[in-house]
Amino acid sequence: MINLAKILVLNPVSTAIWNDLTKSYLEKIASPQTIFEVRSLEKGPKSIECEYDVALATSHVVEEVVEAEKNGFDAVIINCFDDPGLHASRERVSILVMGIGETSIITALHLGHKFAIISTGPNAKALYHKKAMELGIKDRLAYVGGIPIGVLNLRKDVEKIKELLIKEAEKAINNHGAEVIVLGCGGFIGIAEELSKKLETPVIDPTMITFKITEALTSLRLRHSKKYLYRPPEHKLREWGYE
């Protein structure tokens, strides 16, 4: 049987607490022909909750992506909403590299005119307004909110997390006109469907949507363009062994 895809789902943190949880949910939606692994970094921040954490993780992420290409993976998913190392990784390898932040935000545009991002922490509003600006879609962003729970504590009381997310989502929908809710952290995996039913509004699980889109793109043999943005100087290509 020909494999549809061999995908590495990389949790870009130096703790393994998310690996089994992520794998268990992705097993429910993965194509029977898809091979995938879930793993975390050996070195790097324990969680990613600010720009400094992103900077600490980036070089380690790129190294893992390079190794994934050497080991025959068709694609890598960077399983953090901040997408650490996304663009550098795409520049460095020829396989598909997807970030759950970029992918889930772009997907929200297919499901409604205005969307909201609900993440963690008080700096979420600035971080993801900035991300929307970088993607050129800030006019479609209705609201950004962050629940007052740290990333490493997200699975300690899931019912409490759901309550906080619903409260923020209702604010986004009723006061700011959001038609789609994007959950802004891979640690929220597995709860979007329940929230969507309660809110009667599409709620996007960033990890799961990115996984399915990655499967589709890989099956079509699509890769990132190397014409301009992701094509480094010629001497770098030679140094890396691509020419």
Commentary on this structure:
The protein has 243 residues and is an alpha/beta fold. 45% of the residues lie in helices and 17% in strands. It has helices spanning 19-29, 51-70, 86-92, 100-111, 124-135, 158-176, 192-199, 206-219, 234-240, and strands at residues 5-11, 34-40, 75-78, 96-99, 115-120, 141-147, 180-183, 203-204. Strand 1, helix 1 (19-29) and strand 2 form a beta-alpha-beta unit. Helix 1 (19-29) packs across helix 8 (206-219). The longest helix is centred in the N-terminal third of the chain and has 20 residues, at 51-70. It is globular. The two termini are 32 Å apart. The mean pLDDT is 95.
Write the layout of secondary structure elements.
Elements: E1 5-11, H1 19-29, E2 34-40, H2 51-70, E3 75-78, H3 86-92, E4 96-99, H4 100-111, E5 115-120, H5 124-135, E6 141-147, H6 158-176, E7 180-183, H7 192-199, E8 203-204, H8 206-219, H9 234-240
Parallel strand pairs: 1-2, 1-3, 3-4, 5-6, 5-7, 7-8
Helix pairs in contact: 1-8, 2-3, 4-8
Give average pLDDT, whole number: 95
Q: How many E strands?
A: 8
What percent of the residues sit in helical stretches (DSSP H or I)? Answer: 40-55%
CATH class of the largest domain: Alpha Beta
Distance separating the two termini: 32 Å
Using only C-alpha atoms, the radius of gyration works out to 18 Å
Largest sheet: 4 strands, parallel
Assigned CATH architecture of the largest domain: 3-Layer(aba) Sandwich
Q: Assign the CATH topology of the largest domain.
A: Rossmann fold
- Report low-confidence residues grouped into runs of 5 or more: none
What is the count of helical runs?
9
Largest sheet: spatial strand order: 2-1-3-4
Quick one: overall form? globular
Helix/strand-derived class?
A: alpha/beta
Total tally of structural domains: 2
